[in-house]
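Ligand: nicotinamide-adenine-dinucleotide. Inputs:
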Amino acid sequence: MIQSAFRVLYFGYAMNTLLITGGAGFIGSNFVRYLLSVEPGVRIVNLDALTYAGNLANLTDLPAPDRHVFIRGNVCDDSLVRRLLREYDIDTIVHFAAETHVDRSIYGPSQFIQTNIVGTFTLLEAVKQFWVDEKAFSLADVRFHHISTDEVYGSLGPEDPPFSETTPYAPNSPYAASKASSDHLVRAYGHTYGLPVSISNCSNNYGPHQYPEKLIPLVILNALGGQLLPIYGDGKQIRDWLFVEDHCEAIWKVLAAGIPGETYNIGGSTQPSNIEIVEIVCSILDERFPDSAYVPHKSLIRSVVDRPGHDRRYAIDHTKISRELGWRPRESLDSGLQKTVDWYLANTEWVATILDDPSLEAWIDKHYSRDRDIQ
Ligand code: NAD
Ligand code: DAU
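Predicted complex:
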């Protein structure tokens, strides 16, 4: 790798100005922060529609704010995307923007089809025109990196080997199907038009700035407030948990040294059941607040009606990215969860703003009260 103040060269690929989509969300904002700190030469254009999951408060205290431009806009807005590519001379796309909550996709899949499939198609078309048809850059100097999920592979039985890059796709939820569809589009644009694409399929992330509709932040905030902790079904479902900064480092390594046309699986190799991970979070809170009226916090756990079509087990085999790009997770589940709990405890203003947002309350009422009795 050769670095100068304005240019970063990796094996012939020059990364100057990135369009990061969904960079006001959980992983996207962590990635913006990470990239600005490890890459002194790059500029970032951050395109985000600021849906309920997007939050400008995720982008305060960036390490180099002068190298970051925020644009509020939709990835389905073809003319906006085309204008940004030209105006900022974009040579790298990192595409995070998506509807991401499986439960919401079960109630209302339509927005998932729009953003996750049509949005990805819109970006691909615009980029193909700019990079391939108009030859704005040499194709050796550009990259479209698509952020995807392990959910495209479906559900594992207890004895099945973990998902590898060659595991056949078998998405089960509307969310997973929309992500699978977008992966296929990205791959097809690489195969047919020669667009330099790469895809990473990652397992469940947790860490700072995650919106509290997802299991870990929901449990932290509910437990702190003495509210019940809803566990779907028997709670023995298994996820492969990864601290978000480890995911960010993996994406950076794929951009820096990954081979165009390739897919990389990313995961934490930590596979507790849901009930186990909730109990770990509860025990961290017991240690932080030994005098709380809610100790032991695990007494707040309640079984609720299961998620329809709930995938039983995910596990990732990350041998490829470890062997080829030298990546492995730095955080253990214990250290990552300690950091996560402490972040939510320290960032009271961020938490208060989100908890005051009527859209979160509406979601909780609809999802947990209408057909789930958690008493
Ligand atoms: P998130 O829900 O926290 O954030 C999504 C962001 O995308 C928000 O800022 C939102 O405003 C923005 N967005 C949504 N629709 C948009 C649109 N039409 N145009 C522009 N911006 C839009 O999501 P996340 O958890 O950070 O996930 C980011 C990506 O990583 C997604 O593609 C997701 O599928 C993938 N992923 C997530 C996980 C996980 O555990 N969270 C794991 C693997 C992969
Ligand atoms: O595997 C990667 C995926 O991880 C990402 O692609 C998704 O965007 C992300 O949301 C996440 O999906 P999950 O459905 O696995 O995450 P969630 O936090 O919603 O749920 C984790 C597990 O906990 C899952 O088995 C459902 C269960 N759960 C979740 C909630 C919100 C509960 O038992 N109770 C709850 O209240």
